[in-house]
Amino acid sequence: xxxxxxxxxxxHYNPAVTLAALVRGRITLLAAVGYWLIQVVxxxxxxxxxxxxxxxxxxxxxxxxxxxxxxALVVEFLFTxxxxxxxxxxxxxxxxxxxxxxxxxxxxxxxxGAIAVGGIxxxxxxxAVLFGGMAMGLFGTSTLLYLVVEPLGGAAAGLMxxxxxxxxx
Length: 169
Fold this sequence. Notes:
Elements: H1 2-9, H2 15-24, H3 29-54, H4 66-92, H5 102-121, H6 127-135, H7 146-164
């Protein structure tokens, strides 16, 4: 999907990545708000489609608590940061114009995160996915805290990109 939409919209499917692009200075606030609205609606529409196709949620609701919640928040921040940082470097950097690897780099970052910490946090890394999952009853209320740490991860990635690439505006 990154390859499919990259040339159209920059493949902004993740509100935290959009925040990173905003902090980096790649998009305007008005564009970011538009992306955020569409991303959340798309997550909810995806949840509705899945519910129609598959039915209700299967298995237990994911709702980390106690120490596990702290661990989940840390890994959601770290992998959202990693994802947004990779996106900024492979898809927005002047050092990689018109590259053909951006989709693989982004996809493998998501896959690495899901494999490495999916069992700790559910491997969300995307507020729109969280909204869709909550609409389906897959995530408990404690995962609402992801709405704090995922945007922080995106913003930190944008700031890190600007710090390490001051000439790339």
